[in-house]
Amino acid sequence: SPVLGRAGVPTMQGSGIADLTCPSWKPESLPGGWIGEGSNGSESALQSKTSTASPRQAVGWIELTRRLRQSVSGVESAVLAELSRAVRGVLETGFLQGSGSESQPLGLFRIPGQPEVSWGSGAPTYQEVVQQVEAFLAAHGDYSQAVWVAPSALAVQMLQAEKTTNSAQFIVESSPPAGLSIMSRPLLVTDY
Q1: Helix (H/G/I), strand (E/B), else coil: 30
Q2: What is the pTM assigned to this prediction?
Q3: Among 10, 77, 92, 191, which residue carries the largest CB count within 10 Å?
């Protein structure tokens, strides 16, 4: 997914049709502490678990007649480009909003136990954005690695939403060549 790739979301690839298992842990469970000079440290076990990922496939299809292929020069490459765009959309929607059922992956926005901040209608207020950051930090998020993701319509609303009335400071800031950002972190825009 282009948006998730730009966000730095790590990916793992496996081959075959078997489930993929890998270790996982919460960063706050990593052992560590202070000891005095010349003292021995005490060991503690890393609290890890095994996470399992089941294979999924994103598909797209299009019907292309032989007559069209023969009569229009370059139509195959145009159709393949459109099909590629459609499959990217399916991937991005699944990775962000997937339900985890009906062969969909579980999307990042639907992972159970993650902090949620409810917004009123339309674009969030600046205070609601601050609450989102507070929830992220309370969940031990690394803000230096944080990336905002928003649909294009919401990004446009936030470009027009002032932090406070008549301040001429907006929730989304635009700074070429860096692009769009919220509270000094990149904003990636998606239509999926």
Answers
A1: coil
A2: 0.71
A3: 92
